[in-house]
Amino acid sequence: MAEVETVLVTGCAGFIGMHLTRGLLAEGFRVVGVDNLNDYYDVQLKIARLRELRFNVEGDEDSSMNTDSGLTPFVFVKQDIAEVEVMSRIIKNYNVSQVFHLAAQAGVRYSIDNPQAYIDSNVVGTTSLLQACRMHRVEHVYLASSSSVYGAITETPFREDMTCDTPLSIYAATKASTELIAHAYSKLFQLKVTALRFFTVYGPWDRPDMALHKFVERIRKGKQIDVYNNGDMQRDFTYVEDLVRMVLRLSVASTADNDKLYQVFNVGSGNPVSLSKFIGEIQKALDREALIRYLPMQPGDLKQTYADMTKLTATIGSLPKTKLDFGIAEAVRWHSEYYGQV
Ligand SMILES: NC(=O)c1ccc[n+]([C@@H]2O[C@H](COP(=O)([O-])OP(=O)(O)OC[C@H]3O[C@@H](n4cnc5c(N)ncnc54)[C@H](O)[C@@H]3O)[C@@H](O)[C@H]2O)c1
User: Fold this and answer.
1) Is 339 a catalytic residue?
2) Which atom of ligand 1 is nearest to the CA of 175?
3) Which residue ranges form the domains of the chain, and what is each CATH number?
4) For residues 237 and 60, which has the higher predicted lDDT (pLDDT)?
5) Residue 275 pLDDT > 90, yes or no?
6) What's the predicted TM-score (pTM) here?
7) How many angstroms does the Cα of residue 309 sit away from the middle of ligand 1?
8) I need a surface site. Which of 57, 183, 230, 319 has the fewest CB within 10 A?
9) DSSP states of 216-261 as a string?
């Protein structure tokens, strides 16, 4: 019988981490998930996501290395990635072949007042993880980066070969830093690393600090929503299940291509949408009007994100393209189910 390959997903209780873990399990991988379940936002939401992955958190949080029978498809370890010895033991004991590194302190606005959290999770945490991967000769590390690394670049669409040295937020600066550190690790220690620049991801189980989640919650309650730069912003919105499909297909393509040690890919839709259209679709899905308060541009924000998807398309073939109205309707449906109708 063929041996089941074990992969590590960091940040598995997070929005994207949960969807990616589900996708990897469906592909037949065994997944070891690590998350420190920090309280940046509602911990119960993270626990509910773990339950979706059929993991019973109560009393079983440290389903650790010693008690594992080798048969469980999903194993959760509550752990901070910055602890290099523990991460190293996890990788070794589970014989992890590939790492999908999503754990991070996310959010642009929070980073303005809380820079240290970003240095700790993103810079220190990622370096510790890379060190553990290097020690155990992990075959491939996929690193979640962000469209925010394009910073002050105004030329669009954003291409992977543009020089990204003008971040506009601490979050973006830490994400650009992790790409640089990963590049050095890759060249020094022949560690294969692929940095994935995600573009505004949306869908069911999203983060409560993200625009879609906040808008849906407030519109449903009849409360006013804040829209920045007078709504004059565009985002390359990416449906979370499309992202999972792109990452899974990329990992198959990368296994076949042994030449490249370090690569960067945009993971987006290649189709920027105005914030006004986005809000219009939310109103349609909710069948309610939004009370909008227009505000000036927030510090740290980019006016437009627009992914050039040529490189990823050339590598994985045509891209999955969930329509915005469908994706928003799915997110709204989940929101109603999870939080209940008001
Ligand atoms: N959601 C987006 O639109 C978006 C866009 C660009 C990039 N990203 C990146 O994708 C990744 C996932 O984002 P998300 O939206 O799912 O965020 P999320 O906050 O929902 O998930 C991140 C998870 O990582 C965990 N975590 C944070 N620091 C940790 C640490 N030191 N040790 C262990 N676990 C830790 C958190 O508890 C959380 O569950 C992040 O790296 C983020 O920067 C997300």
Assistant:
1) no
2) 43
3) 6-203+238-270+305-321 (3.40.50.720)
4) 237
5) yes
6) 0.96
7) 23
8) 230
9) HHHHHTT-EEEEEGGG--EE--EEHHHHHHHHHHHHHHHHH--S-S
